[in-house]
């Protein structure tokens, strides 16, 4: 489980523009056993809110599509897959965006104005 912490004072006092949809790249970590169970939930709910999104798995499945990063799935500790995602994000293989959001396939997220405003606050104070 991951947590996102931010300063509420900065969030509510921020007067700037939210981060644009074009500035966010979403990486979804999944594995073969959840392709038919979890991925469809993402596709039916929040996938449409992300302009740039890729699914990363231990098995390439063109119908989704998923990208096999060559990292086997593990029950615990997904550092290898996360590192491979970071390497891909920094390469020219994906769109050049300011933000990388890595989520698991059981994550429900909303990329609405509040999320984009939080990113803008962090960007301004980086």
From TrEMBL:
<dbReference type="InterPro" id="IPR003378">
    <property type="entry name" value="Fringe-like_glycosylTrfase"/>
</dbReference>
<comment type="similarity">
    <text>Belongs to the glycosyltransferase 31 family.</text>
</comment>
<keyword id="KW-0812">Transmembrane</keyword>
<keyword id="KW-0735">Signal-anchor</keyword>
<keyword id="KW-0808">Transferase</keyword>
<keyword id="KW-0328">Glycosyltransferase</keyword>
<keyword id="KW-1133">Transmembrane helix</keyword>
<feature type="domain" description="Fringe-like glycosyltransferase">
    <location>
        <begin position="18"/>
        <end position="110"/>
    </location>
</feature>
<dbReference type="Pfam" id="PF02434">
    <property type="entry name" value="Fringe"/>
</dbReference>
<keyword id="KW-0472">Membrane</keyword>
<protein>
    <submittedName>
        <fullName>Beta-1,3-glucosyltransferase</fullName>
    </submittedName>
</protein>
